Amino acid sequence: RSAGSSSFCDPIRLSRSLVVMKLLYSALSAIIVPSLGNLWDQVEPGSVAFFELGKCASGSPAYYGLVKPLNHDKTDELFVEMMGGAICFNSASCENSGLKQWTDIDWFLTQFMKIPADYVVLLKSGASVPLNLMLQLKSGYFPADASHPFWGKYGIYFPVCTADIFTGKHNASYEPSAEQLTDDRDHTCNETESGAGEDYRGCQNRTASGLRCQSWTGAKSGESGWDANATDGLGDHNFCRNPSRTGGGGRGTSNAPWCFVEDDYLSWDICKPVATLTSKTMMHHGGKNVADLLDMVKADGHNFTKISMLGASGGGVAAVAWSTVIADIWPEAEVFAVADSSLHVFPGTPLFDYFWEYSQYGHGPASCGVPKYDVKTPDFDWRETDAIAKHLQSYDGRVKVGYLSCLDDHVVYGDRKILATFAGLTDYMEELIDPDTQHDRTWAFLNSLHECAPDGTVFSYINNCDSHHQTRGGFPDSNHNPGQITPQTFINQLLKGELPDPNGTTQFWFEEHEASASDKSCPSAVRRRRSPTPEVEEEIDLCTTPTTSGDESDEQETSSAANRWPLNLICLMAFSKVFA
Length: 580
Known about the structure:
Layout: H1 9-12, H2 16-32, E1 47-55, E2 61-68, E3 77-82, H3 91-95, H4 97-100, H5 105-112, H6 117-123, E4 129-130, H7 131-137, E5 154-158, E6 170-174, H8 178-181, H9 219-223, E7 258-260, E8 268-270, E9 280-284, H10 286-299, E10 306-312, H11 314-329, E11 334-340, H12 350-358, H13 387-392, E12 399-406, H14 410-423, H15 429-433, H16 435-452, E13 458-463, H17 470-473, H18 487-495, E14 507-509, H19 552-558, H20 567-572, H21 575-578
Parallel strand pairs: 3-5, 3-10, 10-11, 11-12, 12-13, 13-14
Antiparallel strand pairs: 1-2, 1-4, 2-5, 6-9, 7-8
């Protein structure tokens, strides 16, 4: 298997029994000698341990990770890594196979990361997992040696499962669309299935997201190498199936029946019986979960003076958004936020305007009346192109942000297709995926950010490439801009809290692009979240209705966050029951 494989077992080539024994020993050690002091006392040196806190969008438990260094010699520093992830925002998008995996931690670990179920149990048990194992997973930018910017620091790692890029605090309710509820199949078919649906031979011909299936003899099937004359129920029809690549009833290629779709921009999606598609509540609690954990860390007595934040893909958007909130929580700290491969949606463009207008977990009109928690989460009004820059202006240089990205990141183009499809913005699609248009918007966004933010607070490195997640992909040599520092040096210097270049260079672009007059206009007002002066706006809230909380059981679970973390030790003491 290639070095970039997401499989847990293949690249680790270790004795499975030895890994299990080490993790079991770690968990039992935590049970025998529980600590009620420092949060990180629960973790062995050189390890990460995951603990339950809050909810995933699906309603299942969410988790956070605590990283403890081998030698904790940077006691006044903290790093925070926010894992990448996509969003969903209506019933169709939350049922899409590509977006649904970000709504549930088990789905993500088993279906996307391909981690065996018994390892998932161990990861969720609170056991200390050696960092060298996490490095081989390629799930984060974990410290490998003393040259790494996170070496010697306590760390927080946020796995994503809330489909809101760590900004929501809402219980959103989504109704199925008319397309999702369309049922034009032959009702005389046998609709029974078991397991992952490899044995399904029914006549479902639409995906759970409402897209009509294409025939297995169609162009997409042929281009993907599927033989419609093979076994596993394929043929000259457009019914959902879960065939194996080997044929003859082997393991299916998905966790549910699926089909290629009649859509100009999407290839395939999973299927689900129409009768099971009903109104659903999605717990977009990503922002709330982060806020609760930060309150716990603050209550633990840590007074950090330097905080480094890293996020990749959607996590990069979150890292930048949370940087000013964290600066408020630790008012003496310098905050450095780095976004890797995160140029998906630009402020002040139609796609973001859609999410402002219609997202139930944002700050726009669609969030009014949606049950939400009274916690502080990022409140950028990204309808303004210079929103990020104007937030930075109120922190006197204490908050700095950096962007690392390939100009033609292939995942970014793919994500835009999915978002625009389920947002109903197909008329806008060609503009979203046209390289020339997106190049112009990339340079305009970055020029505006550099021009409108305080000097020395914005840094960017743009390379002529199409890769994604550079911090997790090993920084390919081909991504190095000739005559400039390397992408890894750029990232590491910022995350150490240092300038990338001693000469004061802030833009590391493979080609020059001068700022236009519009880039320099900087139209929005300077905003501060928690201003000591009442005349300065503190938080966006267009809703006139009172803020509400979630349902009673959820509210009870999330109360008193600052004093709740010792309960994880009690849960850990039931470790043996996990294996029952």
